[in-house]
Design brief:
Layout lengths: L3 H9 L4 H28 L4 H9 L1 H26 L4 H9 L1 H13 L5 H17 L3 H15 L4
Helix pairs in contact: 2-4, 5-7, 6-7
């Protein structure tokens, strides 16, 4: 849902990537504050206003939250939505379907986390499927005709 709704919006209303980005970031902010309220209520029996005051007073926490919100979320969502208008649906499906593979690969490479053999096989299958999906239909038809001639099958 998080990837299909922006795709539908950008396809239906090209050129409104900025409005879509704003709507997505607003909903992310609302959900984040809602999560904080529910989580603090579950932990303390009420919304932790004192903890929020302490966090706002600490420049390190404020800078971390601003960086996470503006750079890693806001900038990424904005770039993604502007790119949605420029990329074909098949290319977009390749990009979105490789996200889990690249997340696992980067965490293994940068953080030293281990990648199980099942994860590696799954990643190889994802990349293979994406590459096969990008093979032009004309090439597929040629190989199909070649296979029929090779094995003596006719329609």
């Amino acid at each position: 849902c998080s990837t299909s709704l922006p795709v539908l919006f950008v396809v239906r209303y090209p050129g409104n990537a900025l409005a879509l980005s704003g709507a997505q970031l607003f909903s992310i902010a609302l959900l984040s504050f809602g999560w904080y309220a529910v989580d603090s209520f579950n932990l303390y029996g009420a919304v932790d206003v004192q903890g929020l005051r302490v966090a706002i007073a600490d420049p390190l926490i404020v800078s971390g939250v601003l960086y996470t919100g503006l750079v890693t979320t806001g900038f990424a969502v904005g770039c993604e939505n502007f790119a949605l208008a420029k990329v074909s649906a098949s290319e977009l499906s390749v990009l979105f379907s490789t996200q889990p593979f690249f997340a696992a690969a980067f965490s293994a490479f940068l953080l030293g986390e281990s990648l199980s053999s099942n994860g590696a096989i799954g990643g190889a299958l994802i990349i293979s499927a994406c590459l096969i999906g990008q093979i032009p239909r004309s090439f597929m038809e040629k190989t199909k005709r070649f296979g029929r001639r090779l094995f003596g099958k006719t329609d």
